[in-house]
Amino acid sequence: MRWANLLIAAILIASGCADEPQFSSDIDDLPVAEAPTLDAVIGQIERETASETEAMRVIDEAIEAMGGLDAFQHTQQGYVKWQTIGKQPGISKVHSSETVTAEVYFDLPDFHRREMYADPTKEHGLIITNAETTWVGTNAGQGRRVPTSPLEMFHAPFTAAVMESLTKLKEVPTHLFLVESPPDDDFLVVEAYDGDEFLSECVFDKKSHLLIEIFKLAPEMRTDRPLEMVETVTSFSEYKQFGPVTLPTVVCVTQTDNPSLTMKLLVADFDSPVDRKLFELPD
After folding, report:
1. What's the whole-model pTM score?
2. Phi, psi of 120 (to 5 degrees)
3. What is the 3-class SS of 58-124, one letter each residue?
4. Beta carbons of 236 and 213 less than 8 angstroms apart
């Protein structure tokens, strides 16, 4: 962490294992920055440790507000339907519409079936994952089988991925910090770093504890610049309860120089059993 080098330097100087910096007589009159004292460095470490502890508490409260980890496990099978409004590279062109509906049946981690359409009565896209094989084609039965790599596996349905992202914040080797704010603020802000590199900023509602916004650098959505990382703000609103889990039903993604993309959750059923025949791959 960024204070580690300061701590090492302070300890070396305090113990006499390192000399104070020497300067030539030509620059004796210039102001010299004092090395931090050991007490100052330890105080800084204690403040950052307390901030990280508080940040973890905020994330834990957000997970509990969504139903807790048991509820997250409950979302690993079921059916969801959502609508995406806005220009999506490739997808909007294929469907000749900026409003596309997705219906997904899943039993994770091995089974996933997704249909995407602008008009359900017309031929449209269909993707089926069955263990290590994925079939990509249309609902008319035209398509092909391709191997499923771990990166392509379907992990969580739509906004259930919000809770997954929060749990991953606690699992990956990041440093979390609660940003200081006035007591009367309505929000709590947690920043995530990998060493000194900024990863993301998460904003939580202080009263409900729910996640309401994430700011981070993410891949450009435009197909002409797919590898460019740009500032991306994802907002979550209109939370509703679906069985034991509480999910945002409106998600808006905004990127620099791009129109916003809005996703609306229409149906979420995590209780009804899923027919495994839905995941049979076409010949």
Report:
1. 0.76
2. -65, -15
3. HHHHHHHHCCCHHHHHHCCEEEEEEEEECCCCCHHHHHCCCEEEEEEEEECCCEEEEEEECCCCCCC
4. yes
What's the rounded Cα separation, in Å, for the pair 206 and 187? 5
The answer to whether the beta carbons of residues 64 and 209 sit under 8 Å apart is: yes
The answer to whether 88 and 223 are in contact (CB under 8 A) is no
What is the per-residue pLDDT for 230? 87
Question: What is the rounded distance in angstroms from the CA atom of residue 75 to the CA atom of residue 246?
Answer: 11
Alpha-carbon gap, residue 212 to 187, rounded angstroms:
9
Q: How far apart are the first and last CA of the chain?
A: 54
For residue range 161-196, what is the model confidence (pLDDT) as tens digits? Answer: 677 778 777 776 678 889 888 888 999 999 998 888
Q: What is the mean pLDDT of residues 28-54?
A: 60
Number of H helices, E strands in the chain: 5, 13
Alpha-carbon distance values, 267 to 9, 82, 211, 225 (Å): 58, 7, 21, 33
CA distances to 20, 65, 112, 150, 224 from 212, in Å: 49, 12, 28, 29, 30
**To which residue do tokens 């997808």 refer?**
91
Model pLDDT for residues 224-277, shown as the tens digit of each residue: 566 688 899 999 999 999 888 899 999 999 988 777 889 999 999 999 999 999
The whole-angstrom separation of Cα 81 and Cα 116 is 10
